[in-house]
Structures
1.
Amino acid sequence: MDPATDGEVAAWVASLGLPGLVDIHVHFLPDAMQRKVWEYFDDAERNYGMAWPIQYRASEADRLATLRHLGVVAFAPLVYPHKPGMARWLTEWVLDFAARTPDAVPTATLYPEPEVADYLDAALRAGARCVKAHVQVGAYDPRSELLAPAWGMLAEAGVPVVVHCGHGPLPGDFTGLDVFGEVLRAHPRLTAVLAHAGMPELDVALDLAEQYERVYLDTTMVGVPFTERLTPLPADWTARLAGVGDRVVLGTDFPSIPYPYATQLAAIAGWAHDDRLGEPFLRAVLHDTPARLLAL
Ligand SMILES: [Zn+2]
């Protein structure tokens, strides 16, 4: 039975024979910044044209307890800057967070600025195993010359970068998978995880995954009723997923989601009802593939 509530998640995960969930797309931020993000979502009707009631607005300790209760055994806490001069200290903050949180994988972030190679190199040396790039919030061009050394460094290190480069929930100056596709053309060995499976361009994200063997899709907000209204899955979604089934990874956007965590899992479980996917697909998405990507 697919999980209908958060209370059912841990037993469902165990029934699949998994030791737990590995979530590659979770957000933790310094408290003051987290409050500002939630204030933005509280104004979502004006910002996005729809209400966005945050499901897990709680203290950091309570949010960590919730993840553990759900059976999340490891997660990538992702941070991202919206202007220059932020990425270094955010990276330092999240590395410190991961150092004091055993189930958090050390991560880093980046921004097109002259010092990016310096702080990214330091973060990789400090053990960062995942990087977040937010093209929409950062409003930068991922093809920027300033970022070329960073993409090269990540390709060389084999460290995955979770990239929000799609037009959802709002288009940005440089969003669009065609734009990030140019980065992949220049850095074909980059391990890139297309956040939200590239929403709303799910079909183009699948094209890129078929074209580049190191391109992955994360499930964040994909196929849940909240987004299905605006971005319905393509009719051939599960058929095409079968072709790249070992490059789909669990992501959720916890805690700032407008529905329970179980809703995302139920959506993924629904895809697995297609016989071409089934339980092997679930085990890969929910645990094995993200565990491999995050070098657990
Ligand atoms: Zn996110």
2.
Amino acid sequence: MLDWWLPENVSTYGRDIDWLFELIYYITGITAILVFATMLVFLVMYRDRPGRRARYTHGNTTLEIVWTVVPSLILVILTFLSAPAWSKIKIQPPPASDFVVQVTAKQFNWQVTYPGADGKFGTADDKTLLDEMHVPVNKVVHVNLRSQDVIHSFFVPNFRMKQDAVPGREIVQWFEATKTGKYELPCAELCGFGHSGMRGWIYVHTPDDYKKWAAENLTVAAAAPAAAADEKKSEEPAPPASAKGGKAKR
Ligand SMILES: [Cu+2]
């Protein structure tokens, strides 16, 4: 129902997040309407009128118990309802996959490293891209998330994925994109003066396109990754003007 408002969901676990978001949105929305309606009614009912004296009240114990217990129950129920999604995305081991990328956040870029032909990180054939990640569609991708300086947050709104990158830790997160396209990867943790300009793009390709891209960019004699990015950019709509030149701003 809020599809017009949320960014398009292109992740296998996006629905698990979205229905919780909508549920909480409607609960808080209805509560806000009830509170403001009651407030307006009381403003009129108890307005100052000639000859009417203020009445002292100790409150109403029953009413106070009700408005304490009901919200508490709602919060407990929401906790139980959100536990399966949280567990699936954050607690259980990610679904098995042979597709692993290492993302190292720094002020103010995402460094995306592919392990190369040997499948191992930290070897000579690793390939690191700046602010861009390329993945095939309908494929579980493991992201080994690190930070080399401060806390950043790896946020992909279209994937409903968000995870802090913490110095000294490697945190494994995963996603599976269900639609090809170009998706924004902003940093969602205020990490310094260049924070607002810290963002990358995730390109989700068809398997064939991905193979082609990998052959051109991840092999040892690869072309400069920037050239591929420029080609891609010309096919895609330009990013919003407000995002331009944001690097130096807070
Ligand atoms: Cu950051």
